[in-house]
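User: Modeling request: complex.
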Amino acid sequence: MGNPGLRLDMKKSVPFAIVAAALAAVAFLPRFASAYSVVFCSSVIMYAALSLSYAMFSGPTGYVSLATAAFFGVGIYTSAFFGKSLPLPALMIAGGVFSSVIAFAVGAITLRLRGVYFTIFTFGLVELLKHFVLWTETTFAGTRGRTVASFGSVTVFYCMLALLTALLLAAFLLRRSRVGKALSAIGESEDAAAHIGINTTAVKLLAFSLSSFAMGAAGAVMATRWAYIDPGIAFNSLMSFMPALMAIFGGTDRLLGPVAGAIVFAALEEQLITRFPSLYMIIFGAIMIAAILFMPSGVTGLIRRRPAKRKEDVPVGDS
Amino acid sequence: MGILEGRALSKRFGGRLAVDDVDFDLEDGEILGLIGPNGAGKTTLFNLISGAITPDSGAIAFEGKSVGGLAPHRLCRLGIARTFQKAKNFPGLSVYDNVLTSAQFGKKGRSDAAAREMTERTIEFVGLGPFLGKSVTDLPLAGQKRLEVARALATAPRVLLLDEVMAGLNPSEVGGAMELIAMINESGVAVIMIEHVMKAIMGVCGRVMVLHHGQKLAEGAPEDISRNPAVIEVYLGGRRA
Ligand SMILES: Nc1ncnc2c1ncn2[C@@H]1O[C@H](COP(=O)(O)OP(=O)(O)OP(=O)(O)O)[C@@H](O)[C@H]1O
Ligand SMILES: [Mg+2]
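Assistant: Request completed. Predicted assembly structure:
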């Protein structure tokens, strides 16, 4: 058992070192880059973290969740409530815990739903939470929005980077674990998975909760960058679509696919907004459609073992 | 006492009783054939036994204990494995990984080393050795059916439910599949097999049960079933009509 595992580690150690080096290099950015670059990079890292957490659950299972904004929003409100009394890392953990508790409860009900029904429900969750928070705030606190404690852009940057690093490690380990294998089996055929002994409900719940932990943690960090939040800002459905699109664009088959998708997307968004502010959404949409049509397994899918796939195709054609 | 017993099982879909008050017994170590015209309720009965759906009424006992209402993964771990009429192999995984997944999850507490050993043994056993590293889409139909059987076997079942594993196979492949089923049975697994290929039913089954419109029409030795006028009427009449 040790032998094949070891060989795998050797083969994977090179990309592992590259990723570690890249993360370390990014960590030095605040030393020399402009304040604007640090803020921009925090956003890119946030998108990378969100799309990676999206891909953790939705990638292997094929359950498209549009609940990202809901969990992100829970994290935001965690910081809005406790930002003045807790340090940022503690806020991240609290935001993560609240999000995964909600994800667990919601998942227990909705993960019975399959396909588009699940997707619609998760999207509904964003609206539900938004209006619930709005109602609670206006009824009990007599307010609409809240101010959030600020920790400075460099702290935000490092907390995001730490989150992304932890998430990369978690996603890497998850893929190699039995739970990861079970998630892929569910994506391949949920019925078949159940009948070979996989507790599909438990596995889906676990992955859904884990991925929403990271979403909540990301929300807790980002909230501190915005001085003021209200339910509309916190539960913005764009935060559900963007991570999903980035993950699909980058490709969810590979660990770094969603990260690549986030970087490309964020850079593209930045360019389009500054150059074609009025056409930006149209161009963005067109690129997205083209990406889905022509690169079903994402940008990283293009690099992926192409020649091997070709070879395998030959006997099928013959038979 | 049989290894698997069903009593008064019924399942209704809308206005239609797909399984209607069916009793059955499976003895330890036997091969029971399950036949009947299209839509007779054979697959539905498998779905009830394997926990894919819950019966509206009736009871199921495995090794003497009631297992009604258990989830499919629990039943699988207890020792009831099944194949699907339309093969549900994992197309994105290699032949090896397909079987490995079953070996890893099919029994609680199996180590990775034990699962890998089980996987290799099972793949050899069903005769897919040459395809070990291949992708599922590289397998011909007979291979896909064998892989489906291998995925069930790797969970180390006591009872195996085979749903038309010979459909679409040519006569020599049917012969191979019959041999495989006999080997599985000899290794100590009780089998219920749904099959339309009569030659196979007559060749390997010790006993045959006939379903028609969800009800049990007849049950007995293969020779007796093939001579039973009621069976000939619905089965052959139904097929020719
Ligand atoms: N999930 C379901 N929902 C509604 N109706 C169903 C469902 N499953 C089966 N049925 C119906 O129940 C009846 C029995 O179907 P079943 O699949 O058990 O037949 P079968 O004996 O396996 O037939 P075949 O030989 O064609 O496989 C059919 O009329 C079928 O349409
Ligand atoms: Mg059937």
